[in-house]
Amino acid sequence: MNTKEKIFDVSLDLFSKKGYDSVSLREIAEEVGIKKSSIYSHYSSKEAILMDIFEYLTGLLEHDEMLNSEELDLTADNEMLLENPELFYHMGSEAIREMFSRERNLKIWKLIFIQMHYDDNIREFFHDEILMKPLIFWKEFFTVLKENGVIRHDVNSELLAKEYYSFPIFLLLEICSKYEDIPQDLLDDFFRQTEDHANFLLDCVKVKK
Predict the structure, then answer these.
(1) Are residues 29 and 129 in the same domain?
(2) pTM over 0.85
(3) Which of 40, 120, 151, 175 has the most CB atoms around its CB within 10 Å?
(4) Closest-CA residue to 56 (of 8, 4, 116, 110)
């Protein structure tokens, strides 16, 4: 790990535990084991470190192989989507689980929940990347299923998407409000609960054959 990566990880650890505003560049430098002035060789400011953290997460969401695999395409010729939407959801859930299994990524999610109340850029990031993009995806998911007779034609795709997605967001907020370092068994339970909830909702609206 080079010095810039150390600055990145130390900053993320401190930000996610104490909040961005409570951490100074001097404190970051001390934790890394360098002089404060040495940080400027890699980052122009503390805010630049914060922006780099969220750009890192944006890149993960955009380029993650599992999240962007052809098997998760929302198209009418995706046989798995139409014949087994539960498996389709499970594969997406496994992709998110893989992302959450990396401690660095989990700290970024926790930091988002803390920092969005104080920073317009992070609030916009949360709204666009964490709320709206997944909701658009799930709305299209239910629309494809409805148009192909998998779920009832009278369901509201947008409302169902919000119901589908709001539960894991609630669980994440609950976990982040209780724990500084989130135990792995708690994450396992999180994914079990979210998948049970998703399958329950899907079963409520599926066309019974």
Answers:
(1) no
(2) no
(3) 151
(4) 8
